[in-house]
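Hi again,

Forgot to attach this to my earlier email, sorry! This is the prediction with zinc ion bound. I've pasted everything inline since the attachment limit keeps bouncing my files.
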Amino acid sequence: MTGSGLVETLTRRIERVHGKLPRRVFVLTSPPIWALWNETFLASFTEPPIVLFLAPGEEHKTLKSVERLLRQMAVAGGDRGSLLIAFGGGIVGDVGGFLAAIFMRGIPYIQVPTTFLAQVDSSVGGKTGVNLPAGKNLVGSFHHPLAVFADINVLGTLPDRELRAGLMESVKAGIIRDRALLRYMEEHADQVLAREPKALEKVIAASIRMKAGVVNLDERESGLRMILNFGHTVGHALEQATGYKKLLHGEAVAWGMVAALFLARQRGTISPAQFARLENLVHRYGPRPALKLRKAKVAAATGGDKKNVGGVRRFVLPLGIGDAGVVEDVTPAELEAAVEYMLARATQEERT
Ligand SMILES: NC(=O)c1ccc[n+]([C@@H]2O[C@H](COP(=O)([O-])OP(=O)(O)OC[C@H]3O[C@@H](n4cnc5c(N)ncnc54)[C@H](O)[C@@H]3O)[C@@H](O)[C@H]2O)c1
Ligand SMILES: [Zn+2]
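Structure tokens for the complex follow:
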């Protein structure tokens, strides 16, 4: 659920879905988040939970961290009846969910996501896991949380850049499946970016509804769930080509959506007017860092996306507004044209 003031009333809310709190309650968080929000978080606890820390940054989303945390849970007396609460962004959520999936062969857990991205995307759908040196999210498990409490108050301390990046997943949700959300984000961009509670709540609730709906229909990503990858084929390529350092995930997805929209316009699955409307919306929630990349490098990185089964380059293309489909026959020439358009826009963005 989403709303304000969920964190300070957490135990009561957890008891509604779990029953009485068990003897050992673990909280996985990161030091900066805990420094900002520990008082609010602890407000509803009578017995303090056991707090486990994961340092911020993708480089800590590893099996090494997982082993350390599992050991700490065992030493602290964790058992099969224990409960884990993941209190942080997507990294804490993915690692926390994975701990809960494998500790004692699985314990229940609760997500309390603190970034916009985690609230609308990573806490929904049950995917948990960590990275390997060979790539992101290569190890993991499907393990659904008992509940997700997305408190918009905690977004108050989120840096603006993180907010704008996370909002790209909501723009994506609107484009592929929810016209009403799309229109709302067009008409209320000022309120959303100013973090007006009503506007945030509306966008978050609609985004969660979209993702949860798609995941329910296709839990293991065999068909429909693939549309959630709109903007991600080129987006992942950009993250890879920039060494996962320069762009936030949502920023890479924004440019990936621009490339995919161009492709869709060329193929006629959206009209030129729809293209202009959708691209405007992506830019409305910018700006984002400029890209200085060569077309060939991006195109090459696009070929290696892990979501491409058997080496097929798979693209999600919008079909009009609020619908999308998957194509696998994008030619190298089409891809290059789309990347070229996107890179030209990305250079313009730098000058404005
Ligand atoms: N499981 C899934 O389905 C799924 C989907 C999308 C993304 N992900 C994963 O999510 C991760 C990215 O998540 P993210 O974008 O939330 O990044 P993140 O977890 O790295 O958080 C971003 C930054 O914001 C800080 N932060 C978090 N909440 C804050 C707050 N309330 N106030 C101030 N600072 C705060 C964090 O300390 C961090 O520095 C990636 O590892 C990605 O693979 C998973
Ligand atoms: Zn994404």
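The two ends are 38 Å apart (CA to CA). The CA atoms of residues 259 and 342 lie 5 Å apart.

That should be everything now.

G.
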